[in-house]
Write a structure and sequence with these properties.
By secondary structure, this protein is an alpha/beta fold. It is 43% helix and 16% strand. The strands form 2 sheets. The protein has a 6-stranded parallel beta sheet with strand order 4-3-1-2-9-10, sandwiched between helices. Helix 2 crosses helix 3 and helix 7 runs antiparallel to helix 9. The structure holds D-glutamic acid.
Length: 284
């Protein structure tokens, strides 16, 4: 592949709409950059499908973003895909600037006071070798309660799929959040309680208001959007690939392998941008 140019877009990808939580942080930090966001909705969810599926999809998506969109860097805005495939992606594309996401357990350790930390993630993420390796040296520094949250990412997507009010569509999300937070333990700031909740799946950021209600106002919710955005900025700067800030807002292209309307609805609801306002949409 040709070496990328600074005015090429940054690729961001997830199994669906969860990675929009990372895109939001990226656009906040790098407003001048152009982005191509690819939702692999036709092949989602990743969390309960097994490594072979996730690896094959991740490699395919990276190839598509490189060959069709000529991206200068790729942000894998999906914990499950990062856990299963980032090492293979690096091997297949040694010249591609890559950033992945992983559950923010180290930042959680830095802020917990009670020493109780809950981690919510997909089954794929929390049972992965990469997650085990991340946790191994930290295991004795706090009391970790790790919950695989089957169905939660899908429930969050379904909220936008169904017609009706936001409240009634969120019923399944609320039930699953309640189930997984109660399974994690007792939340609060007293001794023995869990005072820090790691959102180890990019979708869960969009369930943060529900989770907040369930765990109480004093518990810290930690996601990875901002650190990932800063890392992307550092990486691009290091390689002279940051687009100069002329004050003009960058473009956003939305691409989906499934329901493009759903991606547009999510972008409108969570990023406040419609396809007609600075974003174009294409089916993959
Ligand atoms: N958003 C993804 C993550 O961060 C995965 C959701 C799914 O497809 O299961 O892990």
């Amino acid at each position: 592949m040709h070496p990328p140019s600074y005015d090429a877009p940054i690729g961001v990808f997830d199994s669906g709409i969860g990675g929009l939580s990372v895109l939001r942080a990226l656009q906040g930090l790098l407003p001048q950059e152009d982005f191509v966001y690819l939702a692999d909705s036709g092949f989602a969810p990743y969390g309960e499908r097994g490594d072979d599926h996730v690896v094959a999809r991740t490699l395919h998506v990276a190839e598509t973003l490189r060959s069709r969109h000529r991206i200068k860097a790729l942000v894998v805005a999906c914990n499950t895909a990062t856990a299963a495939a980032i090492h293979l992606l690096r091997a297949a594309h040694p010249d591609l600037h890559l950033v992945g996401v992983e559950p923010a357990v180290k930042p959680a350790l830095a802020v917990t006071r009670t020493g109780g930390i809950a981690v919510l993630g997909t089954r794929g993420t929390v049972t992965s070798a990469k997650f085990r390796a991340l946790m191994a040296p930290l295991q004795h520094q706090a009391r970790f309660s790790v919950q695989p949250c089957d169905g939660l990412a899908t429930a969050i997507e379904d909220e936008l799929r169904q017609p009706g009010s936001a409240e009634s569509n969120a019923i399944n999300t609320i039930a699953l959040c309640r189930r997984y937070t109660s399974a994690a333990g007792t939340f609060g700031t007293q001794e023995g309680e869990i005072d820090t909740l790691v959102l180890g799946c990019t979708h869960y950021v969009f369930a943060a208001p529900t989770l907040r209600e369930l765990v109480g106002p004093q518990v810290r919710l930690i996601d990875t959007g901002e650190p990932v955005a800063r890392q992307t900025q550092r990486l691009l700067a290091q390689h002279g690939l940051l687009k100069p800030d002329t004050g003009a807002a960058g473009r956003l292209e939305l691409v989906s392998t499934g329901d493009l309307g759903l991606l547009q609805a999510a972008t409108g609801r969570w990023l406040g941008i419609g396809a007609s306002v600075g974003a174009t949409a294409t089916a993959a």
